[in-house]
Write a structure and sequence with these properties.
Elements (H helix, E strand, L loop, with lengths): L7 H12 L2 H13 L4 H16 L9 H23 L2 H4 L4 E5 L8 H12 L3 E4 L6 H11 L3 E5 L10 H14 L2 E5 L5 H4 L6 E3 L3 H12 L3
Parallel strand pairs: 1-2, 1-3, 3-4, 4-5
Helix pairs in contact: 1-2, 1-3, 2-4, 3-4, 3-10, 4-6, 6-10, 7-8
């Protein structure tokens, strides 16, 4: 698929989300995907750009919070539709498993769902545990599902994430299962990054997540 979404698409999408025009917003993003834009490019490009602007509206008008909540709901519908189209159910049974979510205290829905969508397009059966998932819950799910790849999205800047020992325990459990770990998000704690084991990497964009995932699937 082609790389690099039209930068003007972010402005157009912002206008549509601000107005609450769900049908037009959906048509814009799905149209770009059908024209050859990869999901990772759409997430890093127009979706991130538009949502960033929507997230600033509350600073300028009281109704901005309501507009943002509606925009998030519209975006969730669009990303779920992309996920369904990117990796149809008939292909899921033969795909490697990816599993992930956001840690306890992180309420953000879109980042982890977007990661699942990117991984679906990369050929994985992506299991999204969503926001506010305790690390031990994720470890138990990994024992059950045996994923090739585990992702964790950390976006809540005001959240106190688990202490380093809990992360180390999770990383050790996932290493025993043979799962690689991809960490990302604007609120990734520095202490989690220090001295990461080899099977744990940081992906600063969805493009990097896709590249890492595709590398994990490539023949040795």
């Amino acid at each position: 698929r082609a790389r690099g979404a039209d930068p003007d698409a972010a402005t157009v999408l912002f206008d549509l989300l601000e107005r609450g025009d769900e049908a037009a917003a959906r048509a814009l993003i799905l149209g770009l995907w059908l024209e050859g834009q990869a999901v990772a490019d759409l997430v890093d490009g127009p979706l991130a750009g538009a949502l960033s602007k929507v997230g600033e509206l509350w600073r300028h008008e009281p109704v901005g919070i309501a507009i943002e909540h509606r925009a998030v709901d519209i975006t969730l519908g669009i990303v779920n539709e992309l996920r369904r189209l990117a990796h149809p159910a008939r292909a899921a049974g033969h795909a490697p498993v990816a599993l992930g979510g956001a840690p306890a205290g992180d309420p953000y829905l879109i980042p982890s769902l977007a990661a699942a969508c990117v991984l679906a397009e990369a050929g994985y059966r992506a299991i999204n545990l969503g926001p506010d998932t305790p690390l031990q819950t994720l470890a138990l799910a990994a024992q059950r599902e045996r994923p090739t790849l585990v992702w964790l999205s950390l976006s809540a800047t005001a959240t106190t994430y688990p202490p380093r020992r809990e992360w180390d325990r999770l990383f050790a459990q996932l290493r025993e299962l043979g799962a690689a770990v991809a960490l990302g998000g604007r609120a990734l704690p520095r202490e989690v990054l220090d001295g990461n084991p080899e099977h744990v990497i940081v992906c600063e964009t969805m493009r990097e997540l896709r590249a890492f995932a595709e590398g994990r699937r490539a023949p040795v």
